[in-house]
Each structure stands twice: as C-alpha cells, then as structure tokens.
C-alpha cells in the first residue's frame, strides 16, 4: 500500500476556505493530490459545494451532453418528449397507411392464415397420435357414437379427459370387454393406472 498523503495546515486552511467555490479538478491540481485523497479530506472536514457552483456545473454538463448528442444525431433532453411524440404520430400514420394499402393487407391476412393452418395441422397430428393438445382449437369432429361411447365409459369408471383418446383404468372401474373393443376400433387407448 502507498503512503497516506497528509496536507500541511496552510493547505487544509486553503481547502476549507475555497472548497465551496472551486471545482475538484482545480483543487487536485493546486494541491497535487488525487481525487480519492480529496474525497477522504472532504469527509473528514465535512466540506460541501455551494448550490451556485453545482447549478453551474450541471448546466455545463448538460450543454456538453446536448452537443455530443447532436453530433451523434440523438435528441437532447429538452426536446426528447417532442421527438417521442412525433415518432408516435409517425408510427400511427404509417400504420394507417399500411392498412389502406391493399397489397399489404392481403399479405398480412395470408401470413395469419398460413400460421393458423400450421398450428391446426400440428394440433391435429398431436391428437391423432394420442398426445395432449397445446391449444384449445377443435381439430377433430368427434362422431356421435364415439361421444356416446366415451360418456358410457366414464359412467363405468374409466377416466377420460376432454378431447383425449386415452382411457385410464383404475380400481373403481367396472371393465367391459365389449366397450373396450369398440373403443379400440375408434382409436381409444386403454391404460391401467398404476397406484
């Protein structure tokens, strides 16, 4: 570790007298000390800057930032809300213009319908192979006799979830060989539930 830097009594007196109205960099240059040393001394003697200097420094920093933002093509803080409002209005205008463009509307509708078709096909495949659905789309129109069979199976104690082709057999199930045979023909799988 480096040696702790100590200031003379005259330097400390000058610092206490001028800290309020002088920038930190000027103080460091005058006393030949670093910023951390200045911070330590400031805390020791509880020194604070005056409001006027802080306002002036903030103003200078804001002007520097605005100048840099202007060079980079960014809006400054004062005009930021105006720019945001204009950008929002432009976005609304472009959206209105898009909806008035018939080709864009046709392309959009085509993309939406293609996406729905893909989802529908994927869901149909899941149901046909006995997997659970990921959406609430009704992908298969169940024949009336299959609906009635599922209802009767539930009455006999088989566990069948809605829109599912899997019937679980548990201890309370009154098994029926005839209904199970008809169920297998209609694509219903019968699985014994492990307890």
Write the layout of secondary structure elements.
Elements: H1 9-18, H2 24-31, H3 35-45, H4 51-72, H5 80-100, H6 102-128, H7 144-155, E1 159-160, E2 166-169, H8 177-185, E3 189-192
Parallel strand pairs: 2-3
Antiparallel strand pairs: 1-2
Which features would summarize this protein structure in a list?
195 residues, mainly alpha, three-stranded mixed sheet, 8 helices
Q: Give the helix proportion (percent range).
A: 55-70%
User: How far apart are the termini?
Assistant: 70 Å
Total beta strand runs: 3
Spatial strand order of the main sheet? 1-2-3
Order of helices and strands: HHHHHHHEEHE
What's the main sheet like?
A: 3 strands, mixed
What is the C-alpha radius of gyration, as a whole number of Å?
39 Å
**Fraction of residues in β-strands:** 5-15%
> Which blocks of ≥5 consecutive residues have pLDDT under 50?
none
How would you describe this structure to a colleague?
Among the domains are: 9-72, no CATH class; 144-192, no CATH class. Strands 1-2-3 form a three-stranded mixed sheet, covered by helices on one side. The chain is built from eight helices and three strands; from the N terminus they run H-H-H-H-H-H-H-E-E-H-E. It has helices at residues 9-18, 24-31, 35-45, 51-72, 80-100, 102-128, 144-155, 177-185, and strands at 159-160, 166-169, 189-192. The radius of gyration is 39 Å and the shape is elongated. The mean pLDDT is 83. It is mainly alpha-helical. Strand 2, helix 8 (177-185) and strand 3 (189-192) form a beta-alpha-beta unit. The longest helix has 27 residues, at 102-128.
């Amino acid at each position: 570790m480096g040696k702790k830097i100590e200031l003379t009594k005259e330097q400390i007196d000058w610092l206490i007298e001028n800290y309020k109205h002088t920038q930190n960099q000027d103080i460091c240059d005058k006393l030949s000390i670093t910023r951390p040393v200045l911070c330590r001394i400031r805390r020791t003697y509880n020194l604070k800057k005056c409001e006027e200097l802080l306002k002036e420094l903030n103003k200078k920093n804001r002007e520097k930032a605005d100048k840099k933002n202007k060079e980079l093509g960014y809006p400054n803080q004062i005009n930021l809300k105006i720019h945001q409002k204009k950008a929002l209005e432009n976005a609304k205008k472009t959206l209105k213009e898009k909806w008035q463009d018939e080709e864009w509307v046709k392309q959009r509708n085509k993309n939406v319908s293609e996406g729905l078709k893909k989802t529908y096909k994927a869901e149909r495949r899941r149901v046909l192979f006995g997997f659970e659905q990921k959406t609430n789309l009704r992908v298969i129109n169940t024949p009336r006799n299959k609906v009635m069979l599922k209802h009767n199976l539930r009455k006999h104690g088989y566990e069948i979830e809605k829109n599912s082709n899997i019937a679980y057999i548990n201890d309370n199930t009154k098994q029926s060989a005839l209904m199970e045979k008809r169920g297998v023909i209609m694509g219903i799988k019968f699985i014994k539930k492990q307890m």
